[in-house]
Specification:
It is a single chain. The chain has 264 residues and is of the alpha+beta class. It has one domain: Jelly Rolls, CATH 2.60.120.620. The protein has 7 helices and 13 strands. Strands 1, 2, 3, 4, 5, 6, 8, 9, 10, 11 and 13 form an 11-stranded antiparallel sheet that branches. The chain is globular and about 55 Å long. The two termini are 36 Å apart. The mean pLDDT is 93.
């Protein structure tokens, strides 16, 4: 493991996240992720790396594509068997700015982390996978997401089995991560619409996670309802590190057009 590339990776991580830390704790952390559906490693990046990425994100922000998308919780077409205000069809909205992969500098610490064999090995062990692959298109592997006051990521389930994110800048107010874990299906395997309704109507209090600047989060969002509340003051900058479990997979053209304003 003592290659030059891996030395560069550990240089951008906080000192506690050493080779020894991963060797001693990955199994326990994987069990926590499996049990809770979420894993947060705060202070994952070094203070220097956080400052570098904040400066990089600020320089790139004028080129960010501003998107506004409306969707139901399941990111699926409307089902005419249910009314529009049902948990199945109710619409939610997300607004944000986004920098796609092809605008991120080759020298960025984000690429050092994303391309690191040590980091990918760590992720594979946590997620119980053999290998992870980048997206086949030029836009989707690494994204910088900007949430200004009024922006939010509203309630939804993910289509992907897992999400990997880094918080680069935390807002001074709002932008809180809320979720309900492992609650999508009932005992018969059917969508539990009544429980979902109770959650989105505020009858059941959500769980919350605090992610610090430089913190890493892994989340299994395909069965867990989640959102980020509106930013009220300051700015939230979130990096998504996007992988596939199969080679040669591109993000859909519709999604690329929605989030990046282009497909290539």
């Amino acid at each position: 493991m003592k290659t030059q590339q891996l030395d560069q990776v550990f240089r951008i991580l906080s000192p506690r996240y050493s080779e020894e830390f991963f060797a001693e704790n990955t199994s326990k952390l994987g069990e926590e992720l499996s049990r809770e559906g979420i894993l947060v490693l705060n202070d994952f990046l070094s203070p220097r790396a956080i400052k570098e990425l904040q400066a990089e994100a600020a320089a790139l922000k004028p080129d960010a594509f501003r998107s506004s998308s409306a969707y139901n919780l399941y990111i699926l077409p409307t089902d005419p068997n249910f009314p529009d205000d049902s948990p199945r069809n109710r619409k939610f909205k997300t607004t944000k700015g986004c920098i796609p992969d092809d605008k991120i500098p080759r020298s960025s610490a984000l690429r050092t982390l994303y391309d690191s064999p040590a980091f990918r090995s760590f992720l594979c062990k946590l997620l119980k996978l053999q290998v992870l692959y980048p997206y086949a298109d030029a836009l989707s592997s690494i994204n910088i997401n900007y949430y200004d006051p009024g922006d939010a990521l509203e309630w939804h389930f993910d289509n992907a089995d897992f999400a990997i994110t880094l918080l680069v800048k935390k807002p001074t107010k709002g932008g809180d991560y809320e979720y309900f874990t492992d609650m999508r299906y009932d005992d018969d395997g059917d969508e539990n619409y009544e429980l979902v309704r109770q959650c989105i109507d505020g009858e059941v209090p959500p769980q919350r996670k605090s992610l610090d600047e430089g913190g890493l989060m892994l989340f299994r969002g395909n069965k867990s309802l989640h959102r980020v509340t509106p930013v009220e003051a300051g700015e939230r900058i979130l990096i998504t590190l996007n992988f596939n479990t199969k080679p040669g997979i591109a993000l859909s053209e519709k999604s690329r057009q929605t989030f990046f304003g282009r497909t290539t």
